[in-house]
Amino acid sequence: MLRYSAIRILLLIPIIICVTFIIYWLVDLAPGTVVDTMINEDMTEEDIAALYARYDLDKPMIVRYGKYMWGLLHGDLGSSQISGLTVWSQFSSRWPNTLWLALFSVILGTVVAIPLGIFAAKHAGSIWDNLTTAFTMIGISMPSFWLGLMLLIWFAGKLKIFPAAYDGTWRAFVLPVFANGFAMIAGICRQTRSAILEVSRADFLRTARAKGVPERQVTYRHELGNAWIPIITQIGALIGITLGGSAVIEAVYSWPGVGYMLVEAIQRRDSVLACGTVILNCIIHAVVLLAVDLIYAAVDPRIKSAYIGKKKKRKVTA
Amino acid sequence: MSKKKQATASRISDQYRREPRFVMTWKRLRTNVGAIIGLIILIVIILSMLYSFFFISYQDITKMNGKNKYAPPSWEHPFGTDEMGRDLFKRCVYGSRYSVAIAFGAVGFGLVIGVFFGSISGYFGGIVDMVIMRLTDIISSIPGTLLGMVIVTILGANLLNLLIAVGVSCIAGFIRLSRASVLTVRSNEYVEAAKAIGMSEFRIIFTQVLPNSISPLIVSATARMGTSVLAAAGLSFLGFGVAVPNPEWGALISGSRNHLTYAPHLCYFPGLCIMALAFACALLGDGLRDALDPKLNK
Amino acid sequence: MKKALCLILSLVLCIGLFAGCGGKTEAPKTDTPATEAPAKEEGSKEPVLINTGGAVTEAGAAETTPPPKEAEYYDELRMYIGDKVAIIDPMNPAAGGTQLGIIDHLAYDSLVYYTIDGKYEPCLATEWSANDDATVWTFKLREGVKFHNGEPFTADDVVFTEQFSTDKDHSGNSVGNAFQYVDKVEANGDYEVTFTLSRGNVDFIYNVANPCTVIVNREAYESGDEHAGWIGTGPFKIVDMVPNDSITYEAFEDYWGEKPLCKKFTQRYIAEETARNIMLENDEIDFCNVSGQYIKQYSEDPRFVINSYVMNNLNYVAFNMSKPITGDINFRLACAYALDREEILDIALDGYGAVCETGAYWGYKTAYKNYDIPAWEQDLDKAKEYLAKSPYNGEKMTICALAMPQTSKAAQAIQNQLANIGITCEIETFDSPGMVAATSWDANDKDFIVTSGALSPLGDSIRTLVTPKNNNNKAKYDNPEVMELVNKAAATPDGPERQEMYYKIQQIMHDELPYYGTFHMALYIAGQKGTGGTIFFPTNFHDYGLAYRLKNPE
């Protein structure tokens, strides 16, 4: 399993190389340069030329990319061209905010959605099922930034229950977590419902019921136990996406996270910051997906045996 | 072969031919209330878009009235007026064209490119497959929002570019999906037969393999339409959308942000419009999935 | 059927919920009809300045009431800032003027203090003098001043600031601009410094007094400390900073001047305007820029004081002189007669600003403004007459606008007004680097450019707008006569001769019309009741050094 994980991580390297090239190239193609945001009325032509030279903007893009990759090879993510701070320090100071927001949103989504999904599946075809379906449909079709603004007007503006912007306290988390998590509730709930329905046709459930296992245990142990895989896949994918930061939610709640940092990097043509952030996001994303794969093995003995089976076979052949 | 014989043959085949798949799907879809509601909402939106083509001019949506700014909804202005005194209802109806164009255009763009590469990858396998799949991995590891923002910044803020920006981020999904379905179809006898009679490879892909692996694509594309509308609205909201004064719904919400506490209607209505369209696509996609699911045939 | 009912029911419920919300919020709205334009209400062209916290000075700035003695103050002041601050380092070109404007008066000092009345007062320098041809300037420095790192302030720091800021490796920083023509700088002992200029410059004192021209510490920079740029001599020292988010200051105990009245000062960038208004309402921030309808709301609310001033910058439409249609004077005149500045201001800023008062391009309070040049008045008949004479034949024109609320709204108003006389335009919006790239001298192929021009109180700030090959010259305006006058005026000392030159420039620019000035933006800063002690400069370099908030406002 360790070997498998190592290969998965190593496979990232070519992807990162290509991704950085694409981002670097695209930011370079965008009209304007990082220096254009610094120019003011008082600068002379020589000042501007010197600035261009300092950022190597007078050389072809490939030279700048080469320099950047050379640094990367030595483990240096570079420094933001705007603030001069290292990409790592900028990312690591903001990432916890994104991490907590993402985790709480996913926890909210999971805690609400799984019981709701089970409930809907148990009453499949009834009015409750349909209400749940309608609710989840609305959830996935509601723009999160719009929901965010609505919550902002109502719970921060009119009712004054929660703060309107990040202030470091737990209360600041409530609105963005809800705005972010609402669509997740919907997504996970749908996935849970269909996974349980799929399993519910299985013979072993009939056996379990026949031998007198209490219904509650049938649901949580036998049905859910066998329906975990698609649900975990869904949750894993959602964590992977939200850890990259939701730019719109961060914009609405003035949330100092990495999602909006990326927007700013693009707006100011800071290719180093943009590349660095994307690289770190890629790594985090890959780690999350790997973790999901490992969790599969933990929850599903069949998959676990597949891993172990492979190992044994290899040993035999060796 | 005589004419008579031919006629008999065709009559017999008529008798025994299964109903066309489209009809069958439609019959099943018809019984799904959710899908019908989705379809109705979608038709209403498309009709209002058509209405706007003929009855709402560019003048109507740009005409300002400084004396009637931020007016709440009334009979005269069903959605109220915006920060420049323009009628929000007309702007929302006019704006439907952007979101509908994105729903169909962006997904169509992604679908065409995705299916092309996906089916090639699945059909040929080997090195072609590997190269295409690695490229897909790369594209899908760039966050969609980022890619969208950069593309709009490079190409400029207009509908076509927004459409491309959103479309690019659905390519990877369609490549994977079509590859998977082609892989399942590839080894069927009719493909072997087509090969045996000497059909060209591309012809086989497009006349034999694709039509038989299209159901999951249709389902996915319909569901993707909803998410594309949301993605485009999100990009517009961040300022990477169509240029002013074109009333794209996401841009309308973005424009309302500074007036939320005294003119919240500027935010409510465009949001509801986006929701209605995405909701319709989601319902329809769900209904189509049920209707096309072979497991539910019984 | 049940299923259908359910779905419809839930849909209606959901929509009803939000529609219901809508209904409820609109109720109080009718009490304060937000529909009238405040500018029109007054029935005059005077800008709507609201100052419930103090008086507006002659220079167009707002100074709030000075602190009462023997009062109790809050220890912490929280302020919203309108710009993201990515980096605090006066020597870094990335820290542009707008960003430093937020920090400069708090953390740093200049040699000379430029007051809002346009006078020069001693700051780090106690006395100064120039020789007759304004080439040698001598400054006597204040003794006993300390930097935030504990180092004493000496002439050596001034020399270092000059040398470091004009060094090629740091070119483009906002400090070095002041020292552009300095040939030599010498320290005569610890507390006297002499600048020798390469050419006479009577405005040198203005450059030195510019809040951008801060004095930094040699030891801090030479130690290579990451936060060397944070060290100044100002009333507050910077203790923490989150890039693009917040800055935290503490009162500096060893400050040479009047000590700050609060112990801690925080500045936060909050992107969402609604969020910051909510925060102001909920007493989570003390000072906050407000705009649009909020201005009216807060000026009527006794819980807040509001201060305002008109910015010197001018929003304008530039006509691209190198294009055949916009290069035609008849076409430009047609546009000038078609536009209505009052309406543009009303659309762009809800009327909260000042329309351009003269027919020439000049800052709101820039020196030597010629008020005799009549402003362009809307006259559609004349506009159509001129349009008929122009080479315009129904072509689709492009308006290139900066993607900022005020400029993109102004562009829409202009598009609308030009449509009235039959000119059809399409708007393209760009973010700021995109705008620079699209409208640089070589690349500019747009017809109209709608943006905002930065202008200082000096007449010479017109220079970049008329210099050929300068990227700031959005109109691609090339008139050697104007250029010559600009150069001559810069070398002439203040007086009637200089005035005549600047008047002439304005007259030519009125006649040739490369730029059509639309409006000056006004800024409104709301504070909680009991706040004061702030000085708001039209240049946006506000002085919060003595800001306070009373615990028990009467």
Distinctive features:
A: 318 residues; mainly alpha; MetI-like fold; 2 domains; globular; C: alpha+beta; Dipeptide-binding Protein, domain 1; Dipeptide-binding Protein, domain 3; eight-stranded mixed beta sheet; 16 helices; 22% strand
Tally of alpha and pi helices of chain C: 16
- How far apart lie the N and C ends of chain C? 67 Å
Helix content of chain A: over 70%
CATH classification class of the largest domain in chain A: Mainly Alpha
For the termini of chain A, the CA-CA separation is 18 Å
Strand element count of chain C: 23
Give the helix proportion of chain C (percent range).
25-40%
Number of helices of chain A: 14
Largest sheet of chain A: none
Q: What is the domain tally of chain C? A: 2
Please, what is the CATH homologous superfamily of the largest domain in chain A? MetI-like
Uncertain segments of chain C of ≥5 residues (pLDDT<50)? 13-45
How much β-strand is present in the residues of chain A? under 5%
Q: CATH-wise, what's the superfamily of the largest domain in chain C?
A: Dipeptide-binding Protein, Domain 3
Instruction: Give helix and strand order of chain A, one letter per element, not per position.
Output: HHHHHHHHHHHHHH
What structural class is derived from the secondary structure elements of chain A?
mainly alpha
Quick check: average pLDDT of chain A? 86
Structural summary, described in words:
The complex is a heterotrimer of chains A (318), B (298) and C (554). Chain A is globular, with a radius of gyration of 25 Å. Chain A has 14 helices and no strands. Chain A has helices at residues 2-10, 12-29, 45-54, 61-73, 87-122, 127-141, 144-158, 171-200, 203-210, 215-243, 247-252, 258-267, 271-299, 301-317. Chain A has 318 residues and is mostly helical. With 298 residues, chain B is mainly alpha-helical. Chain B is 75% helix and 0% strand. Chain B has helices spanning 3-16, 21-30, 33-55, 58-62, 88-124, 126-141, 144-155, 159-186, 189-196, 201-212, 215-237, 249-256, 265-292. In chain B, helix 3 (33-55) crosses helix 5 and helix 11 runs parallel beside helix 12. Chain C folds into 2 domains: 2-60 and 87-233, Dipeptide-binding Protein, domain 1, CATH 3.90.76.10; 314-522, Dipeptide-binding Protein, domain 3 (Roll). In chain C, helix 9 (329-338) packs antiparallel against helix 11 and helix 10 (341-349) runs antiparallel to helix 12 (405-420). The interface between A and C is large, with 61 and 59 residues.
